[in-house]
Amino acid sequence: MKSYFISLFNYDRFANTQIANLILETGISGKSLDIMSHLLVAQQTWLKRCTGQPAPTTPLWPQWPADEFINIIDENHEAIIAYLETLQPQDFDKKITYKNSIGQFENTLSDILAHLVNHGTHHRAQIGQHLKMAGAELPASDYILYIRNLNQAL
Fold this sequence. Notes:
By secondary structure, this protein is mainly alpha-helical. The protein has helices spanning 2-26, 31-50, 69-86, 109-133, 143-153; strands at residues 95-100, 103-108. The chain has a single domain (2-89, 102-153), classed as Four Helix Bundle (Hemerythrin (Met), subunit A), CATH 1.20.120. The radius of gyration is 16 Å and the shape is globular.
């Protein structure tokens, strides 16, 4: 399971980088920046929850400039992969208790990790719609295309 999630988060980094670069190249701002900032701070928040650390004090919808996205994507990815590397098979079934603005909850680590990957995909699609409506041409970023290209490179 560890290698599966590492693969998913490697894809997540790839897809986030593609969208961040497109935002930078086009200079399109507004809602795209807001959503990308939210996607990235959510990664930090969930990682803190998984590791039992206090949640970041950053708002869930920060106003981060686009030129910071690549560094944040890389830092988030390194932190997530470093965390995943510490895990044992049984850790993925471990219950994580966390609190958010509406209450206290408990989910397995594997469900939280799956949520985090899906959360990124959801928000990248939203950003893609905003960018497309502003005239940008979207890159091919499907997971299966990423895997095909990765396997061809090996």
